[in-house]
Design goal:
The chain is about 35% helix and about 15% strand. With about 200 residues, it is an alpha+beta fold. The protein has a domain at about 65-195: Ribosomal Protein S8, Chain: A, domain 1. Strand 3, helix 4 and strand 4 (about 120-125) form a beta-alpha-beta unit. Helix 4 packs across helix 5 (about 140-145). GO terms for molecular function: endonuclease activity. It comes from Allohahella marinimesophila. It holds the Pfam family Smr.
């Protein structure tokens, strides 16, 4: 008898084990660090999905181009004070060495946070693009498109030289409802345009 025949003779009465058709897995109710991290990542993704700022091509500005914008109804004196840097800067965001996508996310979150904490005058340092061969100021160009898309933004203007000049921008944000109510009480119910 060959070795193979001998093996089959020995195994003739062996029956294969029956495999169960279902595997019971007990679901863990424990909240592990992994669960917390996955939930946080899902929340961040959901917030980023709400970000409406566009990343398609925009007209490129040069390093010394001045940014300037104000909503209709904003008082000229208020805008002049912003332009001249006369308001206290309550928060700053530095976008140097950021990609357009990174800047998009940071600007969106920065404006939301500033509004949440009722900040009125803030600044973004975007750089001039002087190191680019074509002297195009990419982030400045995108900011010029992004900032008017925020309903919270009343005005913005390139900063004074001591604050970065055309490499930075002052931004004035809309008052919160609470601040508007305080002003109405303080000034006897007089209405002011655009919530300034």
């Amino acid at each position: 008898m060959s070795e193979k025949e001998n093996f089959f003779a020995e195994m003739a009465d062996v029956k294969p084990l029956e495999e169960p058709s279902q595997v019971l897995v007990k679901k863990s109710a424990e909240i592990t660090p992994g669960v917390i991290a996955r939930r946080a990542a899902a929340t961040r993704r959901q917030l980023l999905d709400q970000n409406h700022l566009r990343t398609d091509e925009v007209p490129l500005l040069k390093s010394n181009d001045v940014l300037s914008y104000k909503v209709t109804g904003l008082q000229n004196g208020v805008f002049r004070k912003l332009r001249l840097g006369h308001y206290l800067i309550e928060a700053r965001l530095d976008l140097h060495r950021r990609t357009v996508e990174q800047a998009r996310q940071e600007v969106w979150q920065f404006i939301r946070d500033c509004s949440k904490y009722e900040l009125r005058t803030v600044m973004i340092l975007h750089g001039k693009g002087d190191r680019n061969l074509d002297q195009a100021a990419t982030l400045k160009s995108y900011l010029n498109i992004w900032l008017p898309e925020f309903p919270q933004v009343l005005a913005f203007h390139s900063a004074q030289v001591q604050h970065g000049g055309t490499g930075s921008v002052y931004i004035m944000l809309r008052k919160s409802e609470r601040e508007k109510q305080e002003n109405r009480e303080r000034f006897g119910g007089k209405a002011y345009p655009t919530g300034v």
